[in-house]
Design a protein that fits this description.
449 residues; Cytochrome p450; 5-stranded mixed sheet; 3-stranded antiparallel sheet; globular; binds protoporphyrin IX containing FE
Amino acid sequence: MTRHFVPPFPDRGPGPVPVWRGFVGERARTLVYGWSERAFREPHLIRNVLGYRVHIPLEPESVQRVLLDNAANYEKPKLVKRLLAPVIGSGLLSSDGGLWREQRRIVAASFTPPAVDALVPVFVDVAERAASGWTQGTRDVAREATAATMRIISDALFSGDERLTSDEAMAHIAAALAGVSEARLQVLLNLPMIPVSVRGYRGRRGQIYLRRTLTELVRERLAGGAPDDFVTRMIHALRERFPADEAIELAVDNAATFYLAGHETTANAVTWALYLLSEQPELQDKAARQAIEALSSGVDAALPERLPLLRMIVEESLRLYPSAPRFDREAVAPDCLGGHDVRPGDLVSVWPWLLHRHRQLWDDPDTFDHTRFAPEARKGRHRFQYIPFGGGPRMCVGARFAMAEGLTILAVWLARHRFSPLPGHRVQLSGAVTLRPAGGMPLALSRRE
Ligand code: HEM
């Protein structure tokens, strides 16, 4: 029955896991591996990682202090900025203070509710085109979801520029992302970021491709005659506040930021939701019926609102498999979290993966139950115990975009096809930055009559 489905998660031992395990084997490649049961019960963890003191607050009140009440004291860590600099420079995701505020104000205009709602037809169009050639048989829905969300970001924000969606571009971009996680240990040890492996080398080439292509694109927009889209509006707004060279650099940083932050995260959310539904055929049929009805009233801005069941399913899916399972901060001044002293320079790691499955916060936390997100069931829940999109002033600027996009893709795909698990396929988790299924997500497809 639906209520008792416990989808897979990595093994948990009883005791604390040694820090060195984070740098070798599976734990190095998959950030949700290697947690002990204890991490899902304790209110606060403190670890020492290569000389850094790392706090992991697991009480919603402490998380709220970091992300909202005392947010100014918690900046993006210098380590993270160094790791991300070759790809996204000082864009919105990796800047702080005045520079962050200025950029957030500029891009926020493109993510207001009316701006996002106007994109629903783009979401439907891409989802329909993706599914139009599908026949009965096995399909890697992770790959399909990534291709669709990449196309959507390119269509919605970059006027569908082919340089960002060709097979070559997709391969370079996937390599660029993989290269970021490869350099993690070098950054922690304060070593120069020279590629030392094939994956690192490919990552560097991917990063160079992405930056070069986006620089061309931004310069063309500045020269005039370009479509009035996200990039054009951004470069002109930046140009009003910054000298030309700096404005171009920041526009490229943000184009890369949105291109990368804006597609794989949603693709993972769609993939995990499809997997969870494939294991629960009755619930899938119910969601498909709602999708068929919602689509039959036409493609309009209110389409996502007509999918309340699917929304609950996606919310539960993001609880169990948060696309961003962790994100970090660095303390600027002393503070106190849950009775623990925080010193300047301490790292604070916020872990949706742990909070969303914490024994003190949820009943049966590892069990799938979408009714947790029914309106009446939400009452009394602390808003910082469920944070797939973060929280406070730095909450995901694309949250509404992602939800509308994910719901629309799922509705179109579920209305046309039935998704079933592939016999013999074992679902495993992967990802050092986002949470993906290892080796993709092959599912069996059949057409819905
Ligand atoms: C299911 C999909 C998504 C998830 C789970 C997700 C999750 C997150 C999280 C947790 C943060 C906060 C990180 C932190 O506080 O350090 C964040 C920030 C951000 N996200 Fe998303 N995101 C998603 C989709 C998107 C999309 C579609 C876009 C753009 C179109 C986007 C763009 C960004 C940007 C630019 C930031 C940085 C905001 C800032 O620092 O002011 N995200 N996202």
